[in-house]
Amino acid sequence: MSDENGMRTHLGGHLRENGMLLALLAIVAFFAVLLQMQDRPVNFLQPLNIANLFLQNGHVIILALGMLLVIVAGHIDLSVGSVAAFTGAVSAWLIVTLGWPVWAAVPATLLVGAAIGAAQGYWVAWWRIPSFIVTLAGMMVFRGATMWMLGGQNIGPFPREFQFMANGYLPDLTGIGKPHGLTLILASAAIILLVSLGLKARVRDAKFGITPEPMGFFVFRMVVITAAIGFVGWQLASFRGFPIVMLILVVLTVIYAFFTENTVAGRRIYALGGNEKATKLSGIRTERMVFLCFVNMGVLAALAGMLVTARLNSATPKAGTGFELDAIASVFIGGAAMAGGSGKIVGVVIGALIMGVMNMGMSMMSLGIDYQQMIKGAVLLAAVWFDIYNKQKRG
Amino acid sequence: MTSSSSLLEMRNIGKSFPGVRALDQVNLSVAPGEIHAICGENGAGKSTLMKVLSGVYPAGSYDGEIHYDGATASFRSIRDSEAKGIIIIHQELALVPLLSIAENMFLGNEVANRGVISWPEAWAKTAALLQKVGLRESPQTPVEKLGVGKQQLIEIAKALAKDVRLLILDEPTAALQENDSAKLLDLMLELKAQGVTQIIISHKLNEIRRVADRVTVIRDGSTVSTMTRDEITEDRIIRDMVGRDMANRYPHREPQIGEVLMEVRDWNVTHPEQPRQVIRDAGFTVRRGEIVGIAGLMGSGRTELAMSLFGRSYGREIRGAVTIKGERADLSTVPAAIAAGLAYVTEDRKHLGLILDEPIAKNVSLANLRGIAERGVLSRGREAQVAEGYRQAMRIRTPTVFQQVGNLSGGNQQKVVLSKWLFTEPDVLILDEPTRGIDVGAKYEIYNIMNELAAQGRGVVMISSEMPELLGMCDRICVMNEGRIIGELPKAEASQEAIMAMILRDGTSEEDVTNGERVA
Description:
The structure holds two protein chains of two kinds. By secondary structure, chain A is mainly alpha-helical. Chain A is globular. Helices cover about 75% and strands about 0% of the residues of chain A. Chain A is built from 15 helices and no strands. In chain A, α2 packs across α13 (about 325-335). Chain B is an alpha/beta fold. Chain B has three domains: about 1-85 and about 165-245, 3-Layer(aba) Sandwich (Rossmann fold), CATH 3.40.50; about 95-165, no CATH class; about 260-355 and about 410-520, P-loop containing nucleotide triphosphate hydrolases (Rossmann fold), CATH 3.40.50.300. Chain B has 17 helices and 24 strands. In chain B, the strands form six sheets. In chain B, strands 6-9-10-3-11-12 form a six-stranded mixed beta sheet, with helices on both faces. In chain B, α4 (about 120-130) packs across α5. Chain B is globular.
C-alpha cells in the first residue's frame, strides 16, 4: 500500500474524530474573527469566556456522558431535563428547607437520581417497554413532581459551599497567585499525559500489527491538542484559575473514556448495542446492563441538576427545560449512531463543546434565540449527514 | 454462441471497488428460453455480476458491455432493467410481512385508478397469478403467515405480474426444505416451458443438475468455464469452483471415542407463546471425541432443543436433566451453561452469532471477556493476541483481526463464531447448521475444524438439514421428529433412506395414536 493510499484510508477511518476536533477549532476561530471585526471589537477568547464556556455548559457535558451510554445500549432518555430539575429541587429541599449539611445532601441527592434511573431502567430492561415511551412518561412525571415539590416557587438561597461547586475555582496551592500556578501545573500535566498516552498507543498498535496513524497526522494532532490545552490553561491561569466545574468534567471524562474503552462492563454495553441477541447468547446479562445504564444516567442527571441549581442559587420549577435535547444532540454531533453500538466519549465532549461555543458565540453577536435555534438544528443535521455520507462513500 | 442467438450477452465485464477488483473479464451469454446456472464460491463475484446486470451498479461504473435483446443495454437503475423484463429475486426476500399477498404483489405498481385502489380487481389478478405458481392461498392472507417456501413463490408471482422475460433467482432454495425446493424447481421448469429465460445462482449442485441447461462457473471474479447440459458433473463444477480436485468431500477421521461427556434426559420444552409442547421427552448422549448428528425435517425441533439446552434461550416450562462429566449441570442461564462447558454455535450467525459492525477481535472475545481482562479491565493486547491465534489456527482469510466481521465471507464469519466459542473452552459444542450458506471450499475447512475438535477430546453435536453432510461427518445420528428423538443410527447403519424411513414410520404411528385417542 502506498503512502498516499495509507493516508487516505486512515483519513477515511478517522475522519470523524479528527474532523470533529477541527470543526470545533474552526467554529472557535470563526467566532473569534467575526467578533473581532465588529464595530466594537470583542475578544472571544478572553479568559472570562473560556471559564464561562465550562461553567455554563458543564451540565450538558455531564448529561451527554450518561446519554452516550444509554444511546450506545440502543436506547434514549428523554427525562433527564425533568430529572435534573427534580433532583435540583430535592437538593434545595434538603439543604434550604431541612437544613441538611451540603456533604450529606449531595450524596443523598445522587442516590435519589440513581433511584429514579433504576425505576425507569426497570421498565425498559425487564418489561421491554420502549425507552422512548418510559422516559417520555418520566419527563412528564418528574416535571410535575418538581412543581409539586417546589409548590410553584423558587427555593434558595444556598450556603456558600454548595454554590462553590458550580462557581468556585481551585485555590492556588503553589502560592504564586498570578498567574495561577496550580492551573499551569495541571495544564502541563494534561499535555504530558496525553502525548505520552498517544505515544504508548502507537507502540502498542505497532506491536499488534494495527496500521498506525501516519506520523504526520499524529504529530499534527498532538501539536493541536498541546496548543489548545496550553492556550486554555494560560488564559485561565491569568484569570481566576481552574474552575471546580472543569475539574469535575475532566475527572468524569477520563473515568468514562476509560470505562467505555477499557473495561469488561463498558465493552458489554457496546456489544449489546451492536447486536443484543448475539450478546445475550454470548452469556451477557443484557437486561442488567441496560438497567445499569439508566441508573448511571439518573446519577449524572442528579449531578447536573445540582450544578445548575447551585449556579442559579435557587431551585426553580422551570429548571432543566430542554436539557435532554442538548444532551442528545451533543451525543449525535459527537458521532454516536441512533441504532446503538457506537460512539466515543471524546466525541461526545467535543460535540457538547461545539454546541456550547455556538451558544456563546451567537449570544455575543447578539443573535436572537430564534436564529440560534435554527442554526443549532442545522448543525445537528449537517453533522449526522456528514457521517452517513462518509459511510456511504466508503461502503 | 453469437449475440444474435442470445437474449443476454455480457462481455468482458469488470468492476472495481476501492482496493478490490471484484470482477475481471467475466463473460456470460444466456440463450432465450434456457435456464442458466451460475456457480461460484462465496465472494467469487456472482452477486456483483447480477448487480451490474440489473443496474444497481449503473452503466459507466463498470467496464465491458451488456447486450440484451439485440441492443446494447445501459441500465442506470433497477427501474430501467425491470422495464426491460429483467427481474431479480434476492436471497433475502423483499416482502412486507404484515401486508397481504395482494398488497405485496402490486406494491409500487398498485391496481389503482387515480390513486384509489380497486381491491376486487387486485384480488382477482392476484388469484390468477397465484394459480400460475401453484400456490393455493387467499390473496388476503398476510404474508407473515406463510412459510419461506411460499413466500418465495409469491416473489416469483410478483415477477410474473411485471411481465418478466429474464428471471434471476439468487440462491432461491437456500432457506427451503427439500420438498419446497423440489416444488420451486418444478415451477422453474414450467416457466421455462412458457418461454421465461432464467438465471439461477446456487450452491446446491444436485439442483443445478436437475434444472440447468448450461452452467457458468465463476472463480475469483472471472469466468472459468461454461458447460452444456451433458457436460455437467458435480465433480467438474466443484473442480472449477475451487480450482482443484476434491477427491473426498469429507475429511477422513479415526474416531477415538471415550467416556460419556454429556447426557440429556427427559427434556421437555413448551413453545414461548403458544400452549404447545415443542420438545417431548428428548434424550441423547455425547461422548468424548464423538461427533453426534441430529437429523430431522424443518420444524422437528432441532434448533429448539439446542437453544433450550443452552441457558434456556428458547421456550418456557423447561423440564429435564442434564449431566456433564458425570455431574448434574446447571444450564438455567447462558452464563451458567457456558460455565458448565457447553457452547452453542447458532444457525443464524448474522443475527444471533456476530456483531457485524465490530472487528474480528471484539467478536472473538465476546463470550469470554474475563479471559482477556484483569479485575474488570480489558487488555487490548491480549485480545489481539487471542484473536490472532485463532485467525491463524482457523485460517480466517483476512489481513488483520481488526477487520469488520461484516466484510468477511460466510465461511470466514463462521470461523469467527467458532473461534468465539472455542475461546470459552467448552467440553461440548452444539453446532447448528455449521455449513449453511458457505461455499464448498470453506465447508471442507469447517469439517476439518470439527474433526480437530473431536480429536481434542471434546464432544460435538452437529445439527444439519443436509443429510449427506451428517452421514459424512457423524459417528452416530439421532433422528428427531415432532419434538422427540425417535431413534439413533450408528454410522455403519445410517443412510438417507434409513433416516427418512424412520421419520415417515414415526409420522404414521403418530397419526394412529391420535386417531385412536379420537375414537376413545
